[in-house]
């Protein structure tokens, strides 16, 4: 799984908490609305909703906002939301494959915004299926805190996880990411918690099956600008790409 979380690590390193908080609120609220609409509007019986609420709380979203989003998804605040999940695909500089997940109530607007972001940053929006075959969807649990690897291994084995990787969540916090099938994600999260591990987040994530090494500073800078531009769009929920770059080049490109 090496390299799969490169962009996730970059985002952690370059997060501008105050500047992006409003966008995080919007994105996570949309996840809650869709989760409440697609299943029972009760987190006890809806794992997708429960994980969205956990993400909202981790982002500091007030409880009243969370309750309002659940009510909206359940159709208790007027017309039910018409948000739909759509996947877009494209290329960045150097042939880097990019997969985008969006929640939108206007496909034309979203596609136009994405196309503009790609065009302005040296990439291009492709047809459905052009890069999707390079990615596999997995369930991922992020565990935070000092890791006892023997404990993590035994818990992962019991939960039928596929693999795990030790990571740095931020400068002061160790952690790990544990990977499984999408269908087994709820079971994995439950067993990790039962074994005393602090599960920070449970989510589905697209994992690239191959990667492109980015070693040109100008191309790296252009690529990171594109990733930022895509993630800044209101309708975009997640962006995944199959590039690798050294930490030194990453730092230079973000300067």
Description of the molecule:
This protein is an alpha+beta fold and 255 residues long. The protein contains 9 helices and 10 strands. It has a 4-stranded antiparallel sheet. Helix 2 packs antiparallel against helix 3 (47-58), helix 2 (17-38) runs parallel beside helix 4 (63-73) and helix 8 packs across helix 9 (247-254). The longest helix has 22 residues, at 17-38. The radius of gyration is 18 Å and the shape is globular. Residues 1-5 and 12-19 have low confidence and may be disordered.
What descriptive keywords fit this protein?
10 strands; 3 domains; globular; alpha+beta; Alpha-Beta Plaits; four-stranded antiparallel beta sheet; 255 residues; 9 helices; 44% helix; Arc Repressor Mutant, subunit A; single chain; disordered N terminus
Poorly predicted residue ranges: 1-5, 12-19
Order of strands across the biggest sheet?
3-1-2-9
What is the general shape? Answer: globular
Distance between the termini: 28 Å
CATH class of the largest domain: Alpha Beta
Could you give the order of the helices and strands? HHHHEEHEEHEEHEEHEEH
SS field, number of helical segments: 9
CATH superfamily of the largest domain: YebC, transcriptional regulation domain
The secondary structure category is alpha+beta
Q: What is the annotated CATH architecture of the largest domain? A: 2-Layer Sandwich
List the helices and strands and how they pair.
Layout: H1 6-14, H2 17-38, H3 47-58, H4 63-73, E1 84-91, E2 97-104, H5 107-120, E3 124-125, E4 135-144, H6 149-158, E5 163-170, E6 173-180, H7 185-194, E7 198-208, E8 212-213, H8 217-231, E9 236-241, E10 243-244, H9 247-254
Parallel strand pairs: 8-10
Antiparallel strand pairs: 1-2, 1-3, 2-9, 4-6, 4-7, 5-6
Helix pairs in contact: 2-3, 2-4, 8-9
């Amino acid at each position: 799984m090496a390299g799969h979380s490169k962009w996730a690590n970059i985002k952690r390193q370059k997060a501008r908490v105050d500047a992006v908080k409003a966008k995080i609120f919007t994105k996570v609220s949309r996840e809650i609305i869709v989760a409440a609409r697609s299943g029972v509007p009760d987190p006890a019986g809806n794992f997708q909703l429960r994980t969205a609420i956990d993400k909202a709380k981790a982002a500091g979203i007030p409880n009243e906002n969370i309750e309002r989003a659940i009510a909206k998804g359940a159709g208790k605040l007027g017309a039910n939301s018409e948000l739909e999940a759509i996947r877009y695909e494209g290329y960045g500089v150097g042939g880097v494959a990019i997969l985008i997940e969006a929640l939108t109530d206007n496909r034309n607007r979203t596609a136009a915004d994405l196309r503009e972001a790609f065009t302005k940053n040296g990439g291009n929006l492709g047809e459905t299926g052009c890069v999707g075959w390079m990615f596999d969807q997995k369930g991922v649990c992020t565990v935070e805190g000092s890791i006892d690897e023997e404990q993590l291994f035994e818990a992962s084995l019991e939960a039928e996880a596929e693999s795990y990787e030790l990571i740095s969540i931020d400068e002061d916090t160790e952690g790990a990411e544990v990977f499984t099938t999408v269908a087994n994600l709820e079971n994995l999260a439950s067993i990790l918690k039962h074994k005393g591990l602090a599960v920070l987040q449970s989510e589905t994530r697209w994992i690239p099956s191959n990667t492109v090494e980015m070693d040109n500073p100008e191309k790296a800078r252009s690529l990171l600008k594109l990733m930022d531009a895509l993630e800044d769009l209101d309708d975009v929920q997640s962006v995944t790409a199959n590039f690798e770059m050294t930490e030194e080049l990453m730092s230079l490109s973000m300067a």
